[in-house]
Known about the structure:
Blueprint: H1 21-35, H2 41-44, H3 46-53, H4 57-80, H5 83-86, H6 89-105, H7 113-127, H8 131-139, H9 146-169, H10 175-196, H11 213-218, H12 221-254, H13 260-273, H14 275-289, H15 291-308, H16 317-331, H17 335-345, H18 351-364, H19 366-380, H20 391-405
Helix pairs in contact: 1-8, 1-9, 1-10, 4-7, 4-18, 6-7, 6-8, 6-10, 8-18, 9-13, 9-14, 9-17, 12-13, 12-15, 12-16, 12-17, 12-18, 12-19, 12-20, 13-16, 14-15, 14-16, 15-16, 15-17, 15-20
Protein name: MFS transporter
Keywords: Membrane, Transmembrane, Transmembrane helix
Transmembrane segments: 21-40, 60-80, 92-111, 117-135, 147-167, 173-196, 222-243, 263-282, 294-313, 319-338, 350-374, 380-400
Amino acid sequence: MSTAVRTADATVDEARDPPGCWAGLAVLASAMLFGMTTWFSATAVVPQLEAVWAITPGQAAWLTIAVQLGFVVGALGSAILNIADLVPPRRLMLYGATGAAATNALLLTAPDVTVAIALRGLTGLFLAGVYPPAMKAMATWFRFKRGTALGIMVGALTLGSATPHLVNGLGGLQWQLVIVVTSLLTVAGGVLAEVVGRDGPFPFPKGRFDPRMAWRVFTDRGVLFASLGYFGHMWELYAMWAWFSVFLGETLSLQGVGEAGRWSAIGTFAVIGIGALGCWLGGVLGDRLGRARATIIAMAISGACALGIGLLQTAPIPVILAVGLLWGFWVVADSAQFSTAVTELGRQDYVGTALTLQLAIGFILTIPTIWIIPLIAESIGWRFAFAILALGPLAGIVSMRQLRYARGA
């Protein structure tokens, strides 16, 4: 009866993780979901904030972009200073969640949109102390079904990403209430991780402060190929999430559907939200087929959807929604598997540093595609606007094929 730790492309006949691992998953996944709610708080109430501050569409976009830039700054700083490997991960989640909740709550006192954008940047910076350490903490509970566990965690975040669209589709909420509730949930997530959560029986060795390790662990052959695959994935993911609602709204209007904005928001909630199931299946496939094969399958399907969906703008709405749901399912199905590969292939005393740097660079790559998609759509229409996103999965597939044959994978 054989058992083995699953790596980039290994399989196993029978594997069991320790008792209590799924309870540990439930606590940490809940803590991360609550802790990350401030990421989406301003997005959910942009229509109300436009009226309060008389902001332009460009300024409204910066309320979201600022969070991502702040996250990148926080993650890069954490990686260089090895914070994720020096501070216990659940303790770091508490610190990050408290800071994010405080800066999010300060939106209630912001006099104008400029201050609000700055506060959103600080919120993103503190959230860099929630997401990467949560992934590291979860990995201490699982060896054999680590991909499934991390997939479930990312699936919870995916559902959270979709929720603002449902809020908008149902008519929105009073913006002050949304800010207060998300701040309280974020603090609760940090407390839940630190007080209720526990470390699993597979702890990572503690690293020591060495700024040079950020680059050294990242350029390890296995970590590098897994990260390059992740970068291709991120090139596609957030631009699809950011602009699918606009594409769907214009498509519904083109075909004469009434209340196009409302139905677009609800449809986009379904398209993004179904990715939560995709993350779970991606984790199962990663554990059974190996990280490389699972991510290649997901990127091949999502890349094909990116190439083809714009060509369907005049097709029947059910056909467009079906392709959208297929895209939403697979575009995020591979997300957690790149991080899982890093936890398995990277130097174990600097796993937190490697994960944080991977996430930081990945989020940097979301910015150009979020910026360029509406420019292409305005210039030549949606027919080919999403096609540029397929370059990411193509590059990711090449990288993950290399990972399959890399030494130690």
